[in-house]
């Protein structure tokens, strides 16, 4: 990641290392994003149903 950030301020242009670092970051982000979407669309939905099933009063701030 550090290499990618340094590349932003380089006047030289993208090197093969810069491009490889960006590709690695994109691949890592895709895995994390997929895990988050699965959590958001499955785990949170199930948790919401269970909380609503308790008929507990809502928490007010």
Task: Give an overview of the whole structure.
The chain is mainly alpha-helical and 61 residues long. The protein has one domain. Helices cover 74% and strands 0% of the residues. It has 2 helices and no strands. The chain is elongated.
Order of helices and strands: HH
Helix content: over 70%
Mean pLDDT: 87
Identify the quaternary structure here.
single chain
Distance between the termini: 39 Å
Keywords:
single chain, 61 residues, 0% strand, elongated
Describe, in short, the structure shown.
This protein has 61 residues and is mostly helical. The chain contains two helices and no strands.
List the helices and strands and how they pair.
Blueprint: H1 2-8, H2 16-53
